[in-house]
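sry for the spam today, last one i promise. struct tokens for design, 103 residues
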């Protein structure tokens, strides 16, 4: 589902910001400004700023990085996914949230 949420990324050495390009039940595509750039296989913590739910943290791993678009990465959530995030994504996919609520 294509949605744009602000987020913060962290790992042991650095922190950066960004936004989602899309989310699914298993992961997300992110546009980030973290420096140096993330690499495939890297473990990160992502803090999403969800409408009506506020900040929700989830552990994830970087699955791919774009060679064409700097800062664009694909991540996979590390189970267990926080209930607030899982239920929000389920509502998005079911069409229960309108676009203005989701962006």
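last one done:
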């Amino acid at each position: 589902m294509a949605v744009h949420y602000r987020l913060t990324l962290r790992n042991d050495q650095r922190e950066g910001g960004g936004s989602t390009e899309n989310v699914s039940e298993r992961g997300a595509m992110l546009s980030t400004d973290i420096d140096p750039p993330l690499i495939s296989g890297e473990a990160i913590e992502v803090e999403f700023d969800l409408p009506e739910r506020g900040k929700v943290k989830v552990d994830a791993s970087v699955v791919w990085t774009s060679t064409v678009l700097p800062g664009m990465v694909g991540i996979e959530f590390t189970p267990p996914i926080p209930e607030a995030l899982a239920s929000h994504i389920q509502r998005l996919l079911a069409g229960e949230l309108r676009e203005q609520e989701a962006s």
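The mean pLDDT is 92. ok im logging off now
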